[in-house]
Amino acid sequence: MALLEIRNVTRRFGSYTALDNVSIDVEAGEFFTLLGPSGCGKTTLLRMIAGFDLPDSGQILLDGKDMVGIPPEKRPVHTVFQTYALFPHMTVADNIAFPLKMAGKAPQEIKKRVNELLERVHLPNFGNRFPHELSGGQKQRVAFARGLVNRPRLLLLDEPLGALDAKLREEMQIELINLQKEIGITFIFVTHAQDEALALSHRIAVMNRGNVEQIDEPSKIYSAPRNHFVADFIGKISVMNAAVMEAVPSHLKLAIEGLGEVTAPAREGVEVGDKGVLAIRPEQVRISHPSNESQLKNHFRGKVHDFLYVGDVTTYIVELVNGAYIEALLPNSAPGRAKFFEVDDEVTISWRHDAGIFLNDPQ
Amino acid sequence: MKRGNPWLWSAAVLVYAFLYIPLIIVVLYSFNDSRLNAEWVGFTLFWYKALFNNTEMLLAARNSLIIALCASFCATLLGTMSGLAIHRYKLRVLPVLVFTPVAMPEILLGVSILLFFLQVLNFTLGMVSIIIAHTTFCIGFVAIIVRARLQGMDESIFEAARDLGASPWQTFRLVTLPLIMPAVVAGALMSFTLSIDDFVITFFTKGVGEPILPIQIYTMIKVAVTPEVNAISTLLMLLTLVMIIIAARLESNASSEESTKPGKTVK
């Protein structure tokens, strides 16, 4: 039995459906992420798990027990809020001690646990400070400590890294992974940042407009997105309109409008005549001079439309003969050769026959 | 250095002169060694001594203090509750209902409360009726201040308390109340100053019994403007000023500083 079972949960606000028949199971010990654009329902779902909102229909079960009617303070679930929500009139130690006091723990135990958590989040001498005396990252750590100190069954994290700058974010991501591993508490993490979700999670539920589009491990979400939305939302991807010419267990043969024929990996449920898109990640696209004819079967001529140099890699946007654009990623690992192609250069782009994904969901 | 526009400066000086010269004259003449408010003769504390031997005046001051304390206590309690309710339940009518008495002409409020006491409740006018009337018009001020404080605060702080195991009552006692305390105290001080020098509503609701300070001052002036009136006015002014300064500081501290340590600010 899963630790948390969300069964057919629906929530409407007036005529707006925030969650539409959502079902998710979260296992004990998991780092589970709800990922989606704003308005996809992820925060609504989190608030329901915490007890601040109720489903219109469906059930939320924790350890097999229906949570409906149980107020937030009676649920073994704690939340780390986006704004940290530290109590400004209490010291760091009092903030962390709060859930223990509410649970009626003995003063000696409270003291011991608070010190333990302060150590764990690397703030051993910060107990007597007030929240306004802390930096953003330190506040964040205190919020984690406060959420974890009473060992909830489930820790909910509502975009907790959203307010931090990029460098600090990366540090906190690593800390968060370690913290979860050491303490072993189940995390449900809400974010709209796909890179964060990929880096942190054991499993991700990609949500869109109140629906769950896919639940999978990060690598599966990235390499085998189930539909166009997931493919587009996670990482960068180029799409070209395609029709299925041949569907056999080993591969698909696709016709790309105005371009020609390509092969793509086989996919269940795809039939000859299906229309959809061929989606391909920039790092799987090779870009080369037209003179070195590619050995690969899937290759086309194009013209560099634009490029984006970001230091470690350069992304080229190549215009194909049929007017479609495709992105190709080139690592800048060759010293002194940061730039290989210029705008308007003629190039050949190619990709392995198992690189693209055919997605036939309606747009 | 920025000098600003000289016209703006002189306009500002005129406005402040208009506001404060009458008050300054009252203060000065309260120390004037002459029975007439006509010319400066010399410095004296005689009028203050006379004031403290005036039993009628002392009684009036005592009554006014009792009324102000009781009314500000009740108004703070009720005003805080309505401030919280207005913030919590986003109903449009709620704030209008609470804040209207603040804007209502006092004479209207006085008359309606008088009629309510006499014709509806058949209530004998006296200290209690004054306290109730003062409470009525002070509630709105407290509610406005408390609500403003709540509006500036992160809502998730209160949710965090519930989330971490506090019941609604514990959340109020341990988180909400300490955080709004500066506003509550500011509201109490504001109510006190409004109550202690209120004339119109007191006049309508006092009945014939006890002497009340503002009414007493008015009665003295009807006879003649003596420096004794200047002295009591000066004292009243001083009390009001101190209270308003404390209230203003509490409010601005609370809003400028993200953290509020109630133990420190409330004292």
What would you note in describing this structure?
By secondary structure, chain A is α+β, with helices and mostly antiparallel strands. Chain A has 2 domains: 4-229, Rossmann fold, CATH 3.40.50; 236-359, OB fold (Dihydrolipoamide Acetyltransferase, E2P), CATH 2.40.50. Chain A has helices at residues 42-50, 92-102, 107-120, 136-148, 166-183, 194-200, 218-223, 228-233; strands spanning 4-13, 16-26, 31-35, 57-62, 65-66, 77-80, 154-158, 186-191, 203-208, 211-216, 238-247, 251-256, 260-265, 275-280, 286-288, 298-309, 313-320, 325-331, 346-351, 357-359. In chain A, the strands form 4 sheets. Chain A has a 6-stranded mixed sheet, sandwiched between helices. Chain A has a 5-stranded antiparallel sheet with strand order 13-12-11-14-20. In chain A, strand 1 (4-13) and strand 2 form a beta hairpin. In chain A, helix 2 (92-102) crosses helix 3 and helix 2 (92-102) packs parallel to helix 4. In chain A, 40% of the residues are buried. The model of chain A has no long low-confidence stretch (mean pLDDT 89). Chain B is built from 12 helices and no strands. Chain B has helices at 6-29, 46-53, 55-88, 93-103, 106-121, 127-151, 156-163, 168-196, 200-205, 213-223, 227-256, 262-266. Chain B has a single domain (54-266), classed as MetI-like (MetI-like fold, Orthogonal Bundle), CATH 1.10.3720.10. The model of chain B is unreliable at 257-267 (pLDDT under 50). With 267 residues, chain B is mainly α.
